[in-house]
Each structure stands twice: as structure tokens, then as C-alpha cells.
Amino acid sequence: MRSRVTLVLAITAVVLGGVLLVPTAYARLASDDSGGGGGGGTSSVAAPAPAPPPPPTLAAGPVSVSFKGEFFSWALMDRKTGKISGSPNMTATSSTESMIKAWIVSDYLRQLGDKEPSAAMKEAARVAIVDSNDGAANKVYAAAGGSYKASSSSIPDPVIQRAIKICGLTDTKRGNVKPYTGFWSFTRMSPRDAVRVGDCIADGKAAGQKWTKWVLDQMSKVKGTTAAKDQRPSSGGGRWGIIDGLPKSITAQGPVSIKNGWTPIYGDGTWHVNCLAVTGKWSLAVMLRYPIRTGLDYGAKVCASVATQLVTPQPGAALKVPQQPVGKL
Question: Does residue 192 contact residue 84 with C-beta atoms inside 8 Å?
């Protein structure tokens, strides 16, 4: 009797278990069905979407320019790391010309602290950068404590000495070209130091907390071309060079602050052309001397070419995406 009862109970358990197991097994089979008609019980896992590439920037790399002149040098600072790269002669110097006006304005404004300059002095500071106006720069230079009275380069100029100290310059010295000794435009500076000045302005050390944004904003608003109509005896168009060599993929990321310097009036028969540009990521300077007959536009194009060659990644370059393995369950 006990054996018969046991058999009945066992059969009942099998039947009930089958009822419970069949739906579960069916659901499992349905979930394993890939819909491909006989997938063998396996399923492919889609490769994860690749991370978007970082936005283009300027980075150290080879630069090749067919340059015809006596001096060509450039330097690039990665502002995130502070590393400076450039041409083999990036420590060699040339006259700054109007490129140094951005520092002169910054030096003056920093000394004001939280004070406002007079309307006339603020306008002079603005046009010294935006229009590269020499007369305005002279007023700001004098207000900053600059002096033309030195008779030799051994006498320190306070404005330039502060640039050396505050920005950590190592190659810069006062110009000593008679009869221009003491003039701010003939300060001798290397591209390596020029990118340090750009960084110094952008990080706030040059102009101070209150005025840094204002200075960078004026530098982003520099106007005028290399055309004769934009070039005047004591001011001129300075929006050219590095800015022209940057693709929209970089300029669209935010304002590019620039200040160029240029003059053929030096007595040595050459154009002295300098280009400086700075963003939140990098600071780039190109400095040139070449025959006057070649024209200003030539120097502008050389500066643009250097910038274009340092763009990373290069426009149109194929993006290499690593292949992801396809997993199976």
C-alpha cells in the first residue's frame, strides 16, 4: 500500500513539475532565439560606439616653410602642460614691434588693480591693441612707467623688466639699435618668450583678475588686413597671420586672441614681422625678417602656414578606430 501511494505521489510530482517547467523552458528558448532561423543558440553583441575624437587643436609637429629671408623662428606652448616646442632657433631674438603692445596694455591695467582708468586712457589701451595705434601705445607705456631716456640697453626699462619677471622670460632684453635705443618696439624677444607672454596674458598674471578678460577680448577684436588701405604711418590693420591659418573647427571653439607686430622702417632693408595668438589650449608665436620688396602679405602667409601645419588632427585625415571584438553568449 505504501509503495502504491508513493508511486502515485511521484507521478503527480512529475506531471506538476512538467507543467511548471514547460513555460520556463519555452521562455528561455524564446529569449535565445536570434530570429535568424537556426542561430545555434548564440547571440552576437554589438560593438560599443567609439568615443568621439577630441576637437582639433594645435600640437607640436614638423613645420616646413620655403622661407626666403634672414630670420624665421617659431614656438608653440601647450598651455595645459606648459611644454614649449618649436624651431631649432626658437630662443633666437628679433625686435617685437607692435606685438609687445598687448603686454604694455596689460602691465598698465594690472597696476590699476580694481580702479578704472580715465575714459581717454581706456580708449588708448583699446586702440593700441585693436588698431595697433602707436600714439595710443606711447601714452599707455608712459602711464605704466616706461621711459625712453635710457642711452644704452644696460639701463633697465621697468615695463620690460616686469615682463621678464612676471612672465618668466629668459631671452628678452632691451633693444639697442641707434637711434631707437629704449623704444618699446625694439625690445629683443624670442618666439619662446613670446609664447610665454601670450600664456602670461591669458592666465591672468599680466593684467590681473579684473582686466584679463578685457585684454583678451580686445585682442580677439583686432581688425584690418595687410592691404595698403588698412596700413597707415602710425597704425594699421593687424588681423592676419596665424588667425588665417586656423580651420573653422578651431576658431569655432572660442575666441582666438592675437597681436601682431610689423614694420619695414628699421634701417636694415627688411620687414620685421611677428605673429602671436593664444587660446585656452595653446600659445603660438612666429617671428620673421625678410627683404622689404617681398611685402607684408608674404610674412602674413608664412605665419598662417605655420599654424595650419600644426593643426592636429589635420583636416580630412582618416580617423583610425580600433576594432572591437564581437562577443557571444
Answer: yes
Q: Which whole-number Å values give the CA distances from 90 to 73, 192, 198, 270, 290, in the listed order?
A: 5, 6, 15, 20, 17
Indicate whether 3 pLDDT > 90: no
d(CA 126, CA 105): 8
Q: Are 87 and 74 in contact (CB under 8 A)?
A: yes
**What angle (nearest 5°) sits at the alpha carbon of residue 207, between those of residues 206 and 213?**
120
Tell whether omega for the bond before 54 is within 30 degrees of 0, i.e. cis.
Answer: no
pLDDT in tens, 65-109: 999 999 999 999 999 999 999 999 999 999 999 999 999 999 999
Backbone angles phi, psi at 311, to 5 degrees: -65, 130
Cell of 97: 614691434
Backbone φ/ψ region at 254: left (φ over 0), alpha (ψ -120 to 50), beta: left
CA distance 224 to 202: 23
Q: For residues 219, 222, 228 and 234, what is the CA-based torsion angle, rounded to 10 degrees?
A: -60
pLDDT in tens, 97-119: 999 999 999 999 999 999 999 99
Q: Residue 151 gets which letter from DSSP? A: S
C-beta of residue 117 within 8 angstroms of C-beta of residue 210 = no
Q: Which amino acid is at 6?
A: T
Phi-psi map region of 157: left, alpha, beta (phi>0 left; psi -120 to 50 alpha): beta
3-state class (DSSP) for residue 123: helix
Query: Which of 39-53, 124-138, 159-173, 313-327 has the least mean pLDDT?
Result: 313-327
The C-alpha cell at 217 is 577680448
Residue 257 pairs in a beta bridge with: 278
Report which DSSP code applies to 41. Answer: T
pTM score over 0.90: no
Q: What share of the chain is helix, strand, coil (3-state, %, to 5)?
A: 40, 15, 45
